[in-house]
Amino acid sequence: MSRITMVIPKGRIFQKVAGLLNDASLGFETNDRQYIPHIGDPEISAKIMKPQNIAQLIELGSHDVGFTGYDWIVESGAKVVQVMDLKFDPVRIVSAVPETMSEGGLKKKKLIVATEYERIATRYLKERNYDYFLIRTFGATEAYPPQDADMIIDNIATGRTLKEHKLKVVHEIMDSSTRFIANAKAMQDKEKKEKIEELAMLFQAVLVGKDRVMIEMNVPADKLDEIVSILPCMRAPTVAPLFEGQGYAVKSAVKREDTVKLIPLLKKYGASDILEYEFKKVIP
Fold first, then answer.
1. 238 occurs within a structural domain
2. What is the full DSSP assignment across 7-37?
3. Mean pLDDT on 129-137
4. Do the beta carbons of residue 8 and residue 66 sit within 8 Å?
5. How many whole angstroms separate alpha carbon 263 and alpha carbon 279?
6. For strand 111-115 and strand 132-136, is the pairing parallel, antiparallel, or unpaired?
7. Does any domain span residue 200?
8. Do 81 and 182 reside in the same domain of the chain?
9. Which of 263, 195, 268 lies closest to 231, judged by CA?
10. Measured in whole angstroms, how far is the alpha carbon of residue 161 from the centre of its chain?
11. Same domain, 76 and 11
12. pLDDT in tens, 217-236
């Protein structure tokens, strides 16, 4: 089979991607000084690169698959196949100005705009008919106003950093999160496509597994119908009779977030010996 080459992002999203690879049983190992990590799967070789460059490298065919933010796909203009949205590190790309600046005042001067996102910023500023001069930043964009820039275009998660620098959002430009992407020609190769789709299935199984837990309990016979009726599940609860007719063992895969209200409710309805445990993977 053709070997799959994978590129993994440095920086903020590295740990989540590394965790995903290990949870998918791919055997990912590296240290801070390595750019060529070890992958336990002999059909995959990997390299660690900056996320800003990954989409272009995959478009060029240097690598078959990789992980990067949707913002960097748009910013680079790379033509790649977005295999799946992992939903890691969701952020918003926004324009922001000092709190004291009015929105009307933005059109009355030539704005100095600081950003890492030249392509995204240029499109936004032209669509809004701003008169502007663009400064390319390399991190710490929020530190530019008010002395060195009138506006920034940057990514935010909570907005706390903007508030700390006395900045306010003018417009939300786009949303972004981590994507698993592939080279278009690799997706036309039968063997590579099959391997890439297998990886996507494993990643999805890990993500669903993190979202769900198994609830298992003992239920009296006269409470079974009532408890099953309130029990969420992926398809249907598993029900098995207990020894000597002492009721039933019931188990169901439920969303992790539902357990806070569900477990007290099950107890109230007569369930006992309730167990909650985690999955590693869930394949619907």
1. yes
2. EEE-GGGHHHHHHHHHHTT--EE--TT-SS-
3. 94
4. yes
5. 18
6. parallel
7. no
8. yes
9. 263
10. 21
11. yes
12. 999 999 999 999 989 877 88
Tell me the helix, strand and coil percentages in the chain, rounded to 5. Answer: 35, 30, 30
Q: Are 68 and 96 found together in one domain?
A: no
Q: Are 3 and 65 in contact (CB under 8 A)?
A: no
Same domain, 111 and 150: yes
Residue 54 pLDDT > 60: yes
Count helices and strands in the chain by DSSP H and E runs: 8, 16
Is residue 282's pLDDT more than 90? no
Show the domain range for 77: 4-87+177-188
| Per-residue pLDDT band at 2 (split at 50, 70, 90) | low
Q: What CATH number did the domain enclosing 268 receive? A: 3.30.70.120
What pLDDT is stored for residue 1 in this prediction?
52
222-225 long-range contacts (CB < 8 A, ≥24 apart) are: 223/269, 223/270, 223/271, 224/248, 224/250
Determine the angle formed by the axes of helices 190-211 and 14-23, rounding to 10 degrees.
100
Same domain, 67 and 182: yes
Closest CA to 113 of 148, 75, 164, 65: 148
**45 and 67 belong to one structural domain:** yes
Same domain membership, residue 245 and residue 221: yes
Of 5-19, 24-38, 70-84, 237-251, the range with the lowest mean pLDDT is 24-38
Q: Quick one: 188 exposed, middle or buried, by C-beta within 10 A (0-12, 13-18, 19+)?
A: exposed
For residues 194 and 107, the model is more confident at 194
The answer to whether position 74 is within a domain reads: yes
Do both 152 and 183 map to the same domain?
A: no
Q: Is residue 12 in a domain? A: yes
Number of domains in the chain: 3
97-105 mean pLDDT: 86
User: DSSP 3-state assignment of 204?
Assistant: helix
